[in-house]
Design goal:
single chain, 339 residues, alpha/beta, 6-stranded mixed sheet, 3-stranded antiparallel sheet, 5 helices, 29% strand, binds zinc ion
């Protein structure tokens, strides 16, 4: 049982004990570098082929190893460095999300870590979500949810949760409790609501109370779901956008903070939509991408100054350019930034 969290979540009514089983769905893992951690996909709590153990995706092609096929850039795409063809995702029969509100919960530390706002800590996530949901880019996933109209996904309510850091990492159960708190107040529960919970620099988040797999040593972000007394909750954890080992290569359209945040938001949003419970769309081949979801397949890293950085594609999304990873497109059997 995770320890009762010492950190003060203002007005928190949910507790870990009230929550049902929490099933890990996905983590956008930290890659190597100074942390010495391989890129890993965790599929805990459910049996994918080969069991639920962490699997290193060492078969993933790195820069220069993949086919260097000239792309024909689509409208608004200014940089399309490399087309890659991992392998298709398959449908495993589970729930997908055809429409949803995306809610942002910002964990704002008190003065221990100095002032922090959603813009200074994460680079305007509300705008990033709006730019995603109104873009052509998001329609790559229409094929997985069998729906194509625009405006199916929208920015929902955003919340600021001011708290006093205690030095203890948050756990997944804590994150679920935070989401539960706001969902219980608003009534925004079920598959029509996706929550992203943002943590500030210096605040570690670990999957469980053993504190072995954390943003400080293991993952950049992950999405998850939980069955609770108020209903099903879909959520992700989001690190500060410039967390070392989780950043987009520079220079990028908006710099490391905004583009790395955007990349993590896009990654977890698109995977929460296409595989909210780990039972819908993921790769089932045995060629190095087993268990990868639609965004995992299109994360390509290289090393710079001893740290892994992600190779971006720069494209126009609704109101500005972003330098982010693409997403897997079964219809084209490739990573693309447009349907
Ligand atoms: Zn992922």
């Amino acid at each position: 049982m995770p320890s009762v969290y010492a950190l003060v979540v203002i007005g928190l009514v949910g507790t870990a004990e009230q929550l049902g089983e929490v099933t890990a769905v996905d983590r956008q893992a930290v890659l190597g570098g100074a942390r010495g951690v391989p890129r890993v996909k965790i599929a805990a709590g459910k049996a994918r082929v080969g069991g639920g153990d962490p699997r290193a995706l060492s078969g993933r092609a790195g820069p220069g190893a993949a086919a260097s096929v000239p792309a024909s850039p689509g409208a608004g795409i200014v940089s399309y460095p490399r087309v890659r063809f991992p392998s298709d995702v398959v449908y495993n029969g589970g729930q997908v999300i055809r429409s949803a509100q995306i809610h942002n919960i910002f964990m704002i530390p008190t003065s221990v870590y100095g002032p922090c706002t959603p813009a200074s800590c994460w680079g305007e996530p509300d705008r990033i979500v709006r730019d995603l949901v109104e873009s052509d880019f998001i329609h790559v996933i229409d094929q997985y949810v069998a729906s194509s109209p625009g405006h199916r996904y929208t920015l929902g309510r955003s919340y600021i949760n001011q708290y006093t850091p205690s030095g203890t990492p948050f756990t997944d159960a804590d994150v679920a409790a935070i989401v539960h708190h706001y969902a219980a107040i608003s009534g925004d529960v079920g598959y029509g609501h996706i929550y992203h919970v943002y943590f500030p620099p210096g605040q570690d988040v670990c999957f469980d109370s053993s504190f072995s797999q954390c943003t400080s040593n293991y993952f950049c972000a992950y999405h998850n779901s939980a069955d609770t007394d108020i209903g099903h909750l879909i959520y992700s954890i989001q690190p500060p956008g410039d967390l070392p080992g989780c950043t987009m290569a520079q220079p990028s359209a908006n710099g490391p903070l905004i583009d790395s945040t955007a990349d993590a938001i896009f990654h977890e949003s698109l995977e929460a939509i296409t595989d909210p419970d780990g039972t819908a769309w993921w790769n089932s081949d045995n060629a190095g991408s087993l268990g990868s979801e639609v965004a995992d397949l299109c994360d390509f890293f290289f090393f710079e100054g001893g740290l892994a950085v992600e190779e971006p594609t720069t494209l126009w999304l609704t109101t500005r350019f972003y330098s982010v990873a693409m997403v897997y497109n079964n219809a084209r059997h490739a990573c693309t930034a447009e349907p």
